[in-house]
């Protein structure tokens, strides 16, 4: 069961999945190496490795390339990246708010403003 925490009216995963992890799973399923996929995409192997290892975001350009090679809609890759970015940024802000000594009402107001 995926661990979650409640933020205002949204339920967000506590450990969001980076789209690079999903890409790695897709590569395994298709029996593609990083070298093979980087060649097909026309990108360097280090760049692809950074995405897979969650050190780089999936850009619009990369999403379009993935769509053309893997036939997974670019919008899917971009939505995965957007969701990952949203949750991780929200978690960072939540941790900062928890350190501040504010009233519960003020914290709630700030969280709602961030949503």
Automatic annotation (TrEMBL):
<dbReference type="InterPro" id="IPR010982">
    <property type="entry name" value="Lambda_DNA-bd_dom_sf"/>
</dbReference>
<dbReference type="GO" id="GO:0003677">
    <property type="term" value="F:DNA binding"/>
</dbReference>
<dbReference type="InterPro" id="IPR001387">
    <property type="entry name" value="Cro/C1-type_HTH"/>
</dbReference>
<keyword id="KW-0238">DNA-binding</keyword>
<protein>
    <submittedName>
        <fullName>Addiction module HigA family antidote</fullName>
    </submittedName>
</protein>
<dbReference type="InterPro" id="IPR013430">
    <property type="entry name" value="Toxin_antidote_HigA"/>
</dbReference>
<feature type="domain" description="HTH cro/C1-type">
    <location>
        <begin position="23"/>
        <end position="77"/>
    </location>
</feature>
<dbReference type="Pfam" id="PF01381">
    <property type="entry name" value="HTH_3"/>
</dbReference>
